[in-house]
Write a structure and sequence with these properties.
two-stranded antiparallel sheet, alpha+beta, 120 residues, Cytochrome C3, 12% strand
């Protein structure tokens, strides 16, 4: 009986000590970046999941799970790093396509409806 309680306490302590803030995007959530002055970039996990991608599709091969570890730039994306590994114009729209900037970068003055039409 005492051994079981010790094991339970140990498990609870281990769970409490896991720093959940290290996870960039908890299940079903989103994460945003400032977007380098081009408008906020928001990654929606569920949008990618609808297309069949799982966390393991990008973690840890393209992104570490530690928040803030990805120092992304458009140059790196256009070289096929980070999001650019899939957003290459073949698998998904290209990060270098100037007509697709709005797909990732959202500004306060502009928005798009569900069909992708631009509105001021």
């Amino acid at each position: 009986m005492i051994k079981e309680r010790i094991v339970i306490v140990f498990i609870l302590l281990a769970l409490v000590s896991i720093p959940t803030t290290l996870l960039a995007v908890p299940s079903g959530k989103s994460i945003t970046w400032e977007g380098g002055g081009q408008g906020t970039v928001k990654f929606e996990g569920h949008e990618h999941a609808k297309k069949g991608y799982k966390c393991e599709s990008c973690h840890p091969s393209l992104f570490q799970k530690k928040k803030g570890s990805a120092k992304m730039t458009m140059d790196l994306l256009n070289q096929g790093k980070f999001c650019g590994a899939c957003h290459d114009g073949n698998t998904a729209f290209s990060t270098s396509n100037p007509k697709k900037c709005h797909e990732c970068h959202k500004t306060k003055n502009k928005h798009h409806d569900k069909k992708g039409k631009h509105h001021d």
